[in-house]
User: Which sequence fits this backbone?
């Protein structure tokens, strides 16, 4: 994959979309156990994550 670019929360489907410079996207459901650890790590890298 490429360099991480941004993260955005989508309320209706209740997931985060992680976008990379390559254009690749990962949708991370809040129903997935441990999703909070991923979001915390993204925050620790200096990215702004709003819910």
Assistant:
């Amino acid at each position: 994959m490429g360099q991480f670019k941004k993260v955005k929360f989508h309320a209706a489907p209740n997931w985060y979309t992680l976008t990379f410079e390559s254009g690749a996207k990962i949708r991370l459901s809040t129903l997935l156990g441990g999703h909070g650890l991923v979001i915390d790590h993204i925050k620790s890298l200096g990215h702004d994550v709003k819910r």
Notes: DSSP finds one helix and three strands in the chain. The first strand starts at residue 4 and ends at 10. The first helix runs from residue 35 to 44. Residues 15 and 25 are 12 Å apart (CA to CA).
